[in-house]
Automatic annotation (TrEMBL):
InterPro entries: ARIP4-like, Helicase_ATP-bd, P-loop_NTPase, SNF2-like_sf, SNF2_N. PROSITE patterns: HELICASE_ATP_BIND_1. The keyword Acetylation does not apply. Belongs to the SNF2/RAD54 helicase family. GO terms for molecular function: ATP binding; ATP hydrolysis activity; DNA binding; helicase activity. GO terms for cellular component: nucleus. SUPFAM superfamilies: P-loop containing nucleoside triphosphate hydrolases. This is Helicase ATP-binding domain-containing protein. The keyword Ribosomal protein does not apply. Its main location: nucleus. Residues 246-321 are annotated as: Disordered.
Length: 435
């Protein structure tokens, strides 16, 4: 079977290609959002002929067979996606999902309703017959009667779905797949990591951080995760925090500039129109005086080169106009993410040996390179990917210079991005992913 991938951004081209596919046959792979947008029956952004092509190829009469992957996305009949899918006149329908029955009985109804309408009756009837009895028997304090009813209702539901639902586990593919071996390794921390770990637990764990009123588990976990990866990851996080704070300060300064610019537009010495009351003239004069005061404060702030800003009012937390004139709040330059800096030297930051995880990874890389194996490294953290890429570059530089660096664990080898290794993350474009 010949497959072709098309990327059309113009609706005219999309309509032409869909019409060609509808007439000549084949398989059309389409995302849910794209299908919903193209199949809108009363959309005003499509021309009449184009709308007719979309409706004919996708809805009426539509394709001969519809296969919906990730079918649990059709979890609510009231959503625009479910309504768009239900308008398709194709009767041969397949829904693929990895969501088991016991996860969400309400979502299960929508999937079955799409494949075989009215098999489970009306939605309220389905709730009373199956959802409520099965749910009532799953609580820890459910009575024996509730548990017996739950088992009976579950059995009846499975029997009703025998002709419409096929359940398959990994055993179907097991004969065709090579055996998989999984190893979970527990790696000890280095002395530097232990020092950082203990210091954090004693001084920051379960305590307020960055303006929080109480300690939280997830911030603690993320900080500890950076520690047990490598101290350089802590620096990455501090640098990112400083960049975000600088952007915030720049934004506040822009807002301040826009406030101070009022003095350029208002002249309290100008002659007012006869229709303007004295009260309005006084108001305008007050605004001009206030603006001039703000402008003077701004100029003195720039001359002193001190980082300060004026508190800005919001609807939820208004600030009185007089308070703005009287107070100038200094910006705190403290970076709460730099708590680690007194504990780690510059030499230790760039030392691979301060992470046993990195040492192990690069040993695996060396052995895979020696026998020609391909290696896939997963990580939940972009910092970890930056870290690995950083030390790959360090090893490559040392190799090109013909030296062995003990801070790199003595590793050598050429690691050129795009040649010897590839990085794939959320910033990778679709075109580069398919290379």
């Amino acid at each position: 079977m010949t497959t072709k991938s098309y990327r059309y951004k113009q609706n005219k081209e999309r309509a032409s290609q869909l019409q060609q596919w509808f007439q000549n046959g084949g398989v059309c792979v389409l995302g849910y959002e794209m299908f919903r947008n193209l199949s809108a029956e009363n959309s005003k952004k499509y021309k009449k002929k184009m709308l007719k092509n979309f409706q004919e190829s996708l809805v009426d009469p539509g394709p001969d067979l519809v296969v919906c992957d990730e079918g649990h996305l059709l979890k609510n009949e009231k959503t625009s996606l479910s309504q768009a899918m239900n308008r398709v006149l194709t009767r041969r329908r397949i829904v693929l999902t990895g969501t088991p029955l016991q996860n969400n009985l309400k979502e299960y109804y929508c999937m079955v309703q799409f494949v075989k309408p009215n098999l489970l009756g009306k939605y309220n009837e389905y709730l009373n017959r199956f959802v409520n009895p099965i749910t009532n028997g799953q609580y820890t304090d459910s009575t024996e009667h509730d548990i017996r009813v739950m088992k009976r209702r579950s059995h009846v539901l499975h029997k009703m779905l025998d002709g419409a639902v096929q359940r398959r586990d990994y055993g179907v593919l097991a004969p065709f797949l090579p055996p998989k071996h999984e190893y979970v390794l527990f790696i000890t921390l280095t002395e530097v990591q232990i020092k950082l770990y203990q210091f954090y637990l004693e001084n920051y764990s379960r305590r307020p951080l960055a303006g929080k009123s109480s300690g939280f588990l997830f911030p603690d976990f993320q900080s500890l995760q950076r520690i047990w990866t490598h101290p350089l990851v802590l620096k990455y996080n501090s640098d990112r925090y400083e960049i975000m704070q600088q952007k915030k300060r720049d934004k506040e300064e822009e807002d301040y500039d826009s406030e101070g610019s009022l003095v350029n537009f208002i002249d309290d010495n100008s002659t007012t129109e006869e229709s303007t009351t004295e009260e309005s003239s006084d108001d305008m004069s007050d605004i001009s005086d206030d603006s001039r005061k703000k402008s003077k404060k701004k100029k003195s702030k720039k001359k002193g080169k001190d980082k300060a800003y004026t508190p800005r009012g919001t609807r939820a937390n208004p600030v009185e106009h007089e308070e703005i004139d009287q107070e100038v709040v200094e910006v705190k330059n403290d970076n709460p993410t730099e708590w680690w800096m007194p504990l780690v030297t510059e030499q230790e930051i760039d030392d691979m040996r301060n992470s046993h995880k990195l040492i192990l990874l690069f040993d695996i890389l060396r052995q895979c390179d020696a026998i020609g194996d391909k290696l896939l490294v997963f990580s939940q953290s972009l910092y970890s990917l930056d870290l690995i890429e950083h030390f790959l570059g360090k090893v490559d530089d040392a190799t090109q210079e013909g030296r062995v660096d003990e801070k790199l664990g003595g590793h050598i080898g050429t690691w050129s991005p795009g040649v010897d290794y590839f990085r794939l993350d959320g910033s990778t474009s679709c075109e580069n992913r398919s290379i």
